[in-house]
Design a protein that fits this description.
5-stranded parallel beta sheet
């Protein structure tokens, strides 16, 4: 629980005053996929505070159902190691359905092959633990509308 409080405090600093944030269009939509419930919920809260409507999936199989059910997604953030359907498979399916979306793949251990495959798909590779500020910056810069 201490980790969550620490992350939450830093999240408030990183995101600034929500009253001063202006959105130019309807809420952006994100899908967070992770079998770790605590991390999934922290990431959901981070993205919601950044102005996203967030759906969550607890497995790769659940993520594939979400991908089929959604008409639009702006961001897909998936863990790599989750069982029968891994993060690269989720990202691959998501790229086919939502090629314009931002795709991020998280993993708990560095693996050069997974990193190479993720980046060759056009996904952003994040090694856990990663900075929430870095995540927010990557998502914001990738989803900003041109001036």
């Amino acid at each position: 629980m201490l980790l969550y409080i620490y992350l939450y405090c830093h999240l408030e600093v990183a995101m600034g005053d929500p009253k001063k944030r202006v959105t130019k269009r309807a809420k952006r939509i994100a899908l967070v996929v992770d079998d770790d419930e605590t991390l999934r919920e922290v990431l959901r809260e981070v993205l919601e505070k950044s102005g996203f409507r967030v759906f969550t999936a607890c497995s790769g199989e659940d993520a594939l159902v979400h991908l089929e059910a959604r008409k639009h997604l702006d961001v897909i953030l998936s863990d790599q190691d989750m069982g029968r359907v891994n993060g690269l498979q989720v990202i691959g399916a998501s790229m086919l359905r939502f090629p314009e979306a931002i795709h991020l793949l998280m993993t708990g251990g560095e693996c050069a092959e997974v990193k190479h495959r993720a980046e060759s798909l056009g996904a952003i590779y994040l090694e856990k633990p990663f900075s929430l500020m870095l995540l927010i910056a990557a998502v914001r810069s990738s989803t900003e509308e041109p001036a």
